[in-house]
Design brief:
The complex is a heterodimer of chains A (77) and B (145).
Chain A: E1 2-7, E2 18-21, H1 28-38, E3 48-51, E4 54-55, E5 67-71
Parallel strand pairs in A: 1-5
Antiparallel strand pairs in A: 1-2, 3-4, 3-5
Chain B: E1 4-10, H1 15-24, E2 33-40, E3 45-46, E4 49-50, E5 53-58, H2 60-72, E6 80-93, E7 97-105, H3 108-125, E8 128-133, E9 139-141
Parallel strand pairs in B: 1-6
Antiparallel strand pairs in B: 2-7, 3-4, 5-6, 5-8, 6-7, 8-9
Helix pairs in contact in B: 2-3
Classes of the chains: A alpha+beta (77), B alpha+beta (145).
Chain lengths: 77, 145
């Protein structure tokens, strides 16, 4: 299945935004492991994952066409 | 939350026009207090280089829901007449305003306390990121403390 991965903050220095091919039924935790394999620098960062603009539990299964956002600590204001 | 407004501003928040906007709502006579907070881009020094500007990005699709969720956990919000949050996107030079918060309520204590709490919400709970620009070739991701 394909999902769209959005990146923000310092994560934009590590991986580009775009479509990623994942095994059907992947959970957020599994996607995190996969991303760490593809982009080892991600392992050094703390970040949350949102699915379709909502912060997600690690056990949630991602669906075809979903949008994932990788969110490092916020720094507005 | 119909009384909560989150608005994005391209570049610096122009405070003069913001105050004019408030003036237009002075017919809300049940409001007895209006507290505001302006966040200004500071010329910090990072590794010997002075910050020239901050470039802001945000996950705008998620921000309003994040603000609403954060405000639900603040008891005083129920007493607010209106809450407005303005935040910059794009580049804001040092000395300019990047965030403006306006809280209107019946009484001053509510407005002042809530304004302070909402500053913390914006800095730590809204998906916004700042990139401190020190030169044409060097930049650092801002970290809030």
């Amino acid at each position: 299945m394909q999902v769209y991965v959005k990146t923000f903050g310092k994560i934009t220095d590590i991986l580009p935004e775009g479509t990623v091919e994942l095994p059907m039924g992947s959970t957020v935790a599994e996607i995190r492991v996969l991303l760490h394999q593809l982009y080892p620098a991600l392992q050094t960062l703390t970040y949350k994952i949102a699915v379709n603009a909502r912060l997600s539990e690690e056990t949630i299964q991602v669906q075809e066409g979903d949008t994932l956002a990788l969110l490092p600590p916020y720094s507005g204001g | 939350m119909d009384n909560v407004i989150l608005e994005w501003v391209q570049g610096p928040v122009q405070l003069v026009s913001m105050y004019e906007k408030i003036q237009q709502h002075s017919t809300h006579t049940e409001v007895g207090a209006l507290a505001t907070f302006a966040g200004i881009v500071r010329a910090d020094t990072i590794q010997g280089q002075v910050v020239q500007s901050i470039r802001f990005t945000a996950y705008t699709d998620m921000a309003m829901a994040a603000l609403s969720a954060a405000l639900k956990s603040i008891e005083l919000v129920k007493e607010a007449h209106r809450i407005q949050v303005f935040h910059s996107l794009g580049e804001v030079p040092t000395g300019a305003c990047c965030m403006w918060i306006v809280v209107e309520s019946k009484r001053r204590v509510t407005a002042l306390q809530l304004c302070a709490e909402i500053v913390e919400v914006v800095k730590f709970q809204l998906p916004i990121w700042g990139e401190e620009i020190v030169s044409d070739t060097h930049r650092y991701w801002k970290e809030n403390t």
